[in-house]
Every structure is written in structure tokens, then in C-alpha cells.
Amino acid sequence: MKTTIQLGLGQKWTASATAKQGAGEVREIMTFGAGRVGFRVENQSLALTQVSEAAYRVWITETEAILTRDAIPAAQLSPGLELGRRIRLLREMAGLSQQQLAEKVGISRSAVAFWETGRSGHVGKHLGSLAQVLGVEPEVLLTGMAYKAIQATLTPDENTMLTLYRQLDPLIKLQAQKWIERRVRNKTDEEQDTKSVRQPKRA
Question: Residue 93: which of 24, 27, 47 has the closest Cα?
Fold first, then answer.
């Protein structure tokens, strides 16, 4: 029976020391959702690399990577913690230390450390200047999402689904996305299982 690799935010995967490529490479999952995985390679560039969940699972299989740190439990994924992770990631991508970010925003270094550990405190009144220094819109800092006008041709059923989706509360939207992701993932797994059964064995 095929085992599906469960991915999650905060996981660290370490490639086998005997892997053909990237031996010993450590990848930390920084963003996760909508069928995409954003990861950072330890001791390399701070830039985030985005790949599909399927591609990330292939890397795990091909490098015989092992899970060296599990995902952050869902109960701990508070809005404050997620905001803290985004602040830390954006700060590191900008090449700033906590002290440098604090000086640019006009706050103490301990306040930055406080925010990055998930205790949002008085971050609200500094949100505008914090976003400006980090080079993002305040909404991106708060939600991790950027809104962009995209032209698309929709079928009538897609248009109906989109209209209904936009009327949902944010939490229900997230639940709807997760339900769709599970359905797509199950369909992909079933198709891969079917292909492996059909493929003739080589002598």
C-alpha cells in the first residue's frame, strides 16, 4: 500500500548523506497551502523557493530525506505566530538583523524579538512602517496574501463557484480550500496508483 508523505508548516527535511544530488541538504517548509510548498535551504540563500507539493514529495523520495523536525501543531498556528514567522522571514530576506529592523522602524530590538516569537503585542500601530521597511503591503504582512487583478475566462459553473466563494467568511474560505486540496490530492494519488498497476514489470 502506498504511503502518502504528510507535509506541514515548519517541517525540516534532511536529504540522505548518500543522495546523488544535494546530499545532506536541509529544507525547512516556510509556507504551505493551495498545493504549493515554500521552502528555504538551510545555510544557503534566504530566498524562498516555491514548488508544488508533488515536486516536494518527489525530492523527499529521490533523496531519501528524513523528517528532522515535525510540523508546527495546528493548535499552535495562532495568527500571532504566523505573523511572527512572516516578519522573521521577510526580515531575513531583506538581509536585516533584528537590531537593524528595530532601528529602521523606530522601536526596540526586544520588540522585534517579541513579535517574531508569536506575541504580537503592539505590532498594529507599527504595521505601516514595518511593512514599508520590509518592502511589502501591510495586507501581505498580516495575511501572507497579495491580491492581484487577473483576467480569466470562466465557465458558468466556475463563475458560480467564485461568486459563492467570495461571500464566505475567511475561516470558511480556508476550510473550502483545504477540502478542494484534499480532493485533488486524493485524485492525483489514485491516478498514480493506477499508472503503477498498469505499468508492466521489467525483467
Answer: 47
Averaged pLDDT for residues 104-130: 80
Which amino acid, residue 89? L
Nearest to 114 by CA among 69, 83, 74: 83
Integer-rounded Cα Rg, in Å, for the chain is: 20
**Residue 92: closest CA among 42, 46, 134, 143:** 46
Q: Phi and psi dihedrals of 37, rounded to 5?
A: -125, 125
The answer to whether 128 touches 109, Cβ cutoff 8 Å, is no
DSSP 199: S
pLDDT 10s digits, 47-69: 678 888 899 999 999 999 999 88
How many Cβ atoms sit within 10 Å of the Cβ of residue 198? 7
- Burial of residue 19 (number of CB atoms within 10 Å: 0-12, 13-18, 19+): middle
Residue type, 74: A
Amino acid symbol at 185: R
The model's pLDDT over 177-202, given as tens digits with 9 standing for 90+, comes to 778 878 888 887 777 777 666 665 55
Nearest to 47 by CA among 106, 111, 92: 92
**C-alpha separations of 197 from 150, 193, 201 in Å:** 40, 6, 9
Residue whose C-alpha is closest to residue 63's, from 129, 5, 140, 150: 5
